[in-house]
Design a protein that fits this description.
Number of strands: 19
Number of helices: 13
Strand content: 15-25%
Helix content: 25-40%
Radius of gyration: 30 Å
Strand order of the largest sheet: 2-3-1-13-14-15-16-17
Shape: globular
Length: 498
């Protein structure tokens, strides 16, 4: 019978995989408490308070801060994010010696079992701690699982132990230190080589890690600890349980600004209310380091930083009218403080938030002197979403985006869809563009901002320089948007006639 493919052939163009947008609701608490965390185990993610209690104890500072986070009915962990507890090595730390090991690739148990059940003379060579070991006569004909495979290997192997973790076979030396090592498996002159089947030979993706000697690590800076933690967890907000010095606060503020994350800090000295260049709060404000969110607290309770972070990192930008402002919000688990009008005025000028009382109502009174926290949060999200969405457009297009107007418009359309998302969330709002800065047609620019809250302009292809075209770059794209802002206060005039 003739096959229809002789006449009609159908192929499917595979769609590329997409990146996930950044999660703005992952937050981190940095602690110097050893135990569950250390320099070799930098961070751990949590979504419930009981796990914090198990790892750190109910009397720990970590637990107290986490209690504030989980006490909020709206918090990062029920808003699509999670809590990261990260380690800061504040003093020297003794590190135990570690064993060398060989870690294989993930295996399919059914495939491995079916393959090895016909092998009665399995063999391989492996060097353990510098000694070559030849393993032969491994009979797998009666195995039913990967565990059976491990038992057979361990029967013949000395100086190291094989185990299974995450569907990977790991062979670990029984010694520790710099000379502890397990090599990739190689073939013996006789017998059936099983190194490739087990994913432990050269070219399979297996990794051999040499052990390390015990030693003492010196204390690290807070910046170093945040840098290390960010390699493991993509958090967007963080605070330290230990009070930073003024020098550390400025350094953290610079780091947060450069890395598009928010840092939260508490200040408790009356001098922090003063417009004085020696006041680090005023210095940070003058430096325009808006990603550093600062709260004034007479009793120095650092949990208020956790509470403010908890309240802000809760927005789901996919929902309509979901954007928030921190002003006049209540902070769960925090006792408010009373301030004089002079203290309130000074805090507003230098950029310090206050958790205070309006009658018998505790409310957060925010300062915009160092920018508004919600604007900082929202702008980071907009930048990340646009970057990710345009990347996914390029990465999921089965063919290509050509350097033609139609395909450039696809990029513009992708950006517009992202901006519409933020307009629906009430981050972007239509209105009058008051700045003298504009681009493209000034009339069209202002009409678009007035109608939509944004304007997108792509440089005409005819104006693109040849070197950029040869480098396969898109024409330059400019975006202007107007933030919806928020109402924090109201002036009312009453006209009365008798």
């Amino acid at each position: 019978m003739a096959n229809v493919s002789n006449i009609v052939n159908v192929s499917v163009v595979p769609q590329g995989r997409s990146l996930s947008r950044g999660n703005m609701n992952i937050v981190a608490l940095f602690t110097s408490q050893l135990g569950a965390l250390s320099s070799s185990n930098r961070s751990k993610a949590y979504t419930d308070l009981s796990s914090i209690a198990d790892d750190f104890g109910t009397t720990s500072a970590v637990y107290q801060h986490a209690s504030v986070l989980f006490s909020g009915t709206k918090n990062p962990c029920n808003s699509g994010g999670y809590l990261v507890v990260a380690y800061w090595r504040s003093t020297t730390e003794t590190v135990s010696a570690k064993a060398g090991y060989l870690k294989g690739i993930q295996l399919s148990e059914s495939v491995i079992v079916n393959t090895l059940q016909s092998v009665s003379d399995g063999a391989f060579k492996v060097t353990v701690d510098g000694t070559l070991k030849t393993i032969t006569a491994l009979d797998f004909r009666t195995i039913d699982s990967l565990d059976d495979v491990i038992k057979i290997i361990n029967t013949s192997l000395t100086g190291a132990v094989a185990s299974i973790n995450d569907q990977r076979i790991i062979i670990t030396s029984v010694t520790t230190g710099a000379t502890s090592a397990v090599s990739l498996l190689t073939a013996n002159t006789s017998g059936t080589f099983i190194g490739n089947v087990l994913g432990l030979a050269t070219g399979t993706g297996a990794v051999a890690v040499v052990g390390t000697a015990s030693g003492t690590l010196t204390a690290e800076s807070k910046i170093d600890s945040v840098t290390e933690a960010l390699k493991e967890e993509p958090f967007k907000g963080f605070t330290f349980l230990d009070n930073p010095t003024d020098v550390e606060s400025k350094a953290l503020a610079v780091f947060a600004q450069a890395n598009d994350i928010l840092s939260y800090d508490v200040f408790d000295s009356a001098s922090n209310l003063e417009k004085d260049i020696t006041n680090v709060v005023w210095d940070i404000k003058l430096s325009g380091l808006e990603n550093y969110r600062m709260i004034y607290r007479k009793d120095g309770d650092r949990k208020v930083a956790t509470a403010e972070m908890t309240r802000l990192h809760t927005v789901n930008f996919n929902n309509e009218n979901s954007a928030i402002t921190l002003n006049l919000k209540e902070l769960k688990g925090i006792v408010s403080e009373d301030y004089s009008q002079d203290e309130i005025n000074k805090a507003k000028k230098v950029g310090l938030d206050l958790y205070t009382n309006f009658g018998d109502l505790p409310k957060l009174l925010t300062s915009g002197a160092n920018g508004w926290a919600d604007n900082v949060y929202n702008i980071i999200a907009i930048k990340n979403y646009i970057q990710t969405d345009v990347f996914n457009l390029l990465g999921t297009t089965g063919t290509k985006l050509a350097q033609i107007k139609r395909d450039v418009n696809k990029i513009v359309d992708t950006i517009e869809k992202t901006l519409i998302l933020f307009r629906k969330a009430n981050v972007i709002g239509a209105g009058t563009w008051n700045s003298a800065d504009d681009f493209s047609d000034p009339l069209l620019f202002r009409r678009s901002i007035l109608a939509n809250g944004y304007f997108i302009y792509a440089q005409p292809l005819s104006e693109q320089v040849q070197s950029d075209r040869v480098a396969r770059k898109s024409p330059a794209i400019q975006v202007a948007l107007k933030l919806a802002g928020a109402i924090h206060s109201v002036d009312i005039t009453l006209s009365i006639e008798e």
